[in-house]
Amino acid sequence: MRTIIIEDEDLTAEDLALTLKRLEPATHLCARLSSVKEAIAYFENPPEIDIIFSDIQLGDGESFDIFKAVQPQAPIVFCTAYNQYMLEAFQHFGLDYILKPFSDESIHRTLDKYRMLRQTFNKSALDMVNAVDQPAKLPDGRKKSLIVIHGDKIIPIQLQDIALCYIEYENVFVKTHTGKEYIVNKSLEEMEHLLGADFFRVNRQHILKRDTIAFANMTLSRKLVLTLHVEHPIKISVSKEKYHTFIQWLEG
Question: What CATH architecture is 2-123?
Answer without folding.
Answer: 3-Layer(aba) Sandwich (3.40)
